[in-house]
Amino acid sequence: MAAVARALETSNVTSIKSLVESPTLSSVPSAYAFNINPNDEADPNDPEFAIPIVDMSLLTSGSPDQRTQIVHDLVKICEEWGFFIAINHGVQESLMKGMIEAYHGFFSLPDEEKEEFKFGNDVLEMFNYGTSYNLALDKVLLWRDFFKVRTHPEFHSHYKPASFSEISLEFSKRSREVALEITRAISESLGLQPDYIYNTMNMDRGLQMLAGNYYPPCPQPQNAIGIPHHTDPGLVTLVIQNEMNGLQVEHNGKWLTVNGPPNGFFVNLADQMQILTNGKYKSVMHRATVNNKATRISIAIPHGPSIDTIIAPAPELCEREGQAPKYHAMNYKEYMQLVQSGKNYMKATLDHIRA
Domains along the chain? Predict the structure, then answer.
């Protein structure tokens, strides 16, 4: 981390975007060096790595038998995969593309204008712009700029670009509806009431964020990383991206590149879901790679409990399975602070609270 700090002190670069636009850039600077082993990547044509697809219309408007089948399918998906692609979810493709364009507009602003929204590394800030690094966590600089906005329980936005606030309000509402429907189906898949997760996690006050990531072309994509491997701290995360792939998820010891339909949500389970289910459902490890062809923009929409909720394994599930709780109870805000503490760089935060 000392080398990273020195690189920041001596560099005039304020964003990865400005670095890439430098006419002298021909290779990855040493402070960004991160080696990716291509042998660890899955063959996208191998049926073993065909990402499960969930038709959300069968949950919301299908027959009772169709909903029952989807709920049944979710048991295996959540146990063995921890992620899937949601289609027919009711969010218009034009709105999804509009949200990506709004983020593109923000990242296209001059650096000095984006700097107005930089507030440090507190995960609970109303909004926060970053240039790609967090010295408490990152041992290399990341090939990424990001902008996070908190959209629930209170909606926050900003005035640049002009369209951002209106689009992000509508998009956050619609994507939240999708996330809540998914949690209802997951509750049922656990043999619990549909609103069990919603009520237990106090999701009426639950934390929702819009986290936009900007990954410009990299001259040596195998020698840099957008985001190192990690799990998410919340319950469930939805992700969309432009036409460029880069999101990878770990499955059966390999890294699988996500390549879903343009109008689909990639959905991954997060740490609080693994805690709540006492390890039955898995929080998935994932990362963001970069490319040398074109800019990639992704938007992650994490959904979690309220920040004051105490999360622990569900007593009903522990009793039914005859298991002791595998995780210590913890306040969600404290858990997120643990994630940001620097103790868990490229490691599972869950390991710190195992009983």
Answer: 2-353 (2.60.120.330)
